[in-house]
Amino acid sequence: MSRHHRRKQRFKLSSFYVWHRYMGVSAAIFVLIVAITGLLLNHTEDFQFDSEHISSDWVLDWYGIRAPDTMQTFLAGDRYVTLMGEHLYLNRREIEGNFSQLVGAVAFKEAFIVAMTHSILLLTPRGELIEQLQDKDGVPANIKQIGIDANSAVIVKAGHDYYQPDADFIDWKKADKEISGISWATPSLLEPRLKTALQNHYRGEVLPVERVILDLHSGRFFGWLGPWLFDAAAILLILLALSGGWIWLKRRR
Amino acid sequence: MLRKPLLFLIAALLCTTLLAEAVYQQPDDFLSETFSGNVPEPAVIWIKGDRKEFVRQLLGHRYASLRVRYWRRNQRSAWVLEEIGKDLPITIGLVINDGRLEQIKVLVFRESRGWEIRHPFFTDQFDNAVLDENNALDRDIDGISGATLSVRAMKNMATLGLYLDAELRKQNVAPSP
Q: What residues of B are in contact with residue A170 (Cβ under 8 Å)?
């Protein structure tokens, strides 16, 4: 092999090496993102990423997550009972579970009685669920209103009939239709500060951390261009592996 | 030509996955069967104080509600308890006779995996189970591959039912007529 040919080969190898380095640098940021998020995804349960939620405003805004504008609120005693989406709140305290079709709420003795169309919730003032009563527990179906009668007892209107529970809310019986002096729960307006607090809380309960890590891992976090960028990075990595192998082989010769 | 049947098949599979709730027996039917059609009046036991702490340690979290309904005649009580397997609650019926687990049964299963716990080959392991001095089941229960969380939920509900029944007997609560 002539000296000229060897010099040409060396030049070719060094220019290839420069390309290899550029490709490495370009792919580095993507490698870091994919590697770190991959590590985290392998341990989602250990770190509870599946149950923890994102509360960062800019991330929630980036995902376009908004609290519903419409919410139902009833003032029961001195507490607001609010249904926002499927989230139910007693003042600021969220009640565990998913709920729908809030009919009304009343304060009764030291508890709060919340009526949904097909169930009744008994809550402590701290927002703990005492019991959720359903049709299997004798609660009438199709509840339309809840209120307190003249004897300070709870009464609900279901269909065209009225029903009242016993003292422990274990048994429900049809009440006399002629009952008068009932104070029915009526929708109320939520205090603006409480409304903002609930909207912020609602937003913070929607997006699991795992979702964001997955989106970072696949590139979807960066919008429609993200997956294409990560595809390009993957191709770069393939080329990097091939060119690295090729350079290593050439250098050995 | 195959497009329509294929779409239908995909839709059916999706629906099966999404609507995974399987009702094996309605709680009312379970109670009626347990008490031969003459179901006693329900009563409630509160999970407060020491009980609350025990339940928190047993389940790793609070029980869904502060009071639990039961049906009792003489020394025999029936319970309908709920516990989350992975994401959704499993409704489990228990019959306890004089402190021994007479029957445990999955009434409603809502999870997409782990439904095997409803079969007798698994539930038979609980027959006549009692609580030991540490308020734990007196025996080891063999798990089922792929149903770890459902198995754990069922073991926890068996323990919880026996514990609450023991608490009732401690109180010497008069059984319903």
A: 41-44, 69
- CATH number of A96's domain: 2.130.10.10
Q: A105 is in which domain, residue-wise?
A: 72-191
Does residue A184 sit in the same domain as residue A238? Answer: no
Distance CA B80, CA A119 (A): 17
Of B89, B34, B42, B35, the residue nearest B61 (C-alpha): B89
Residue linked to tokens 């809030």 = A102
DSSP helix, strand, coil percent of chain A (3-state; round to 5): 40, 25, 35
Are B69 and A171 an interchain contact pair (Cβ–Cβ within 8 Å)? no
Burial class (CB in 10 A: 0-12, 13-18, 19+), A145: middle
- How far is the CA of B26 from the CAs of B29, B63, B158, in angstroms? 5, 22, 19
* ipTM for the whole complex: 0.77
- Asked if residue A238 and residue A212 are part of one domain, the reply reads yes
Of A131, A168, A171, the CB nearest to B65: A131
Give A50 or B116, the one with higher predicted confidence.
Answer: B116
Which residues of B lie closer than 8 Å to A, measured between beta carbons?
A: 26-28, 41-44, 62, 64-67, 69
Are the C-beta atoms of A136 and B28 separated by less than 8 Å? yes
Identify the sign of the CA torsion B44, B65, A89, A117. negative
**Pairwise CB contact (< 8 Å): A130 & B69:** no
Give the tens place of pLDDT for each residue, B151-162. 999 999 999 999
Domain boundaries, chain B: 20-171
What are the backbone angles phi and psi of residue A111, rounded to the nearest 5°?
Answer: -130, 170
In this structure, the answer to whether residues A103 and A149 fall within a common structural domain is: yes
pLDDT at residue A129 tops 90? yes
Q: Which residues of A touch B65 (CB under 8 A)?
A: 129-132
* Domains held by chain A: number: 2
